[in-house]
Amino acid sequence: MNRSNVELLISHSSGLQASYYRPIEQEVLADYLKTVDLLTINHDSDKTILKKQGASLTQKNKDELYIIRAKLAEKRPSPSWLLFIPLFLH
By C-alpha distance, which of 68, 67, 79, 26 is closest to 5? Predict the structure, then answer.
């Protein structure tokens, strides 16, 4: 948001800038509307965002678990090694 518009909205004196920068109401409103989502506390919106993040992390976790299991499977000896175990160990 334009710093001059912020100062205007919170009624701070902007000194010399007030003489040079005089925005019309629509400019200030448009600038404010760009940031309204970031300035508003909306629990429903926050829950939606958290659900999306949770779903994304869950999928990422599943993907990583799949990769880890595949790597472990590669390191395990194949069942053919069982043929070389003496019978008395069974």
Answer: 26
CA distance linking residue 26 with residue 85, whole number of Å: 84
DSSP code of 78? P
> Nearest-CA neighbor of 1 among 43, 29, 21?
29
Residues 30-45 have pLDDT tens digits of 988 888 877 777 777 7
Q: Is this prediction's pTM over 0.85?
A: no
Closest CA to 4 of 34, 38, 32: 32
**Are the C-beta atoms of 1 and 32 separated by less than 8 Å?**
yes
Task: Report residue 79: phi and psi, to 5°.
Answer: -60, -15
DSSP 49-77: HHHHHHHHHHHHHHHHHHHHHHHHHHHSP
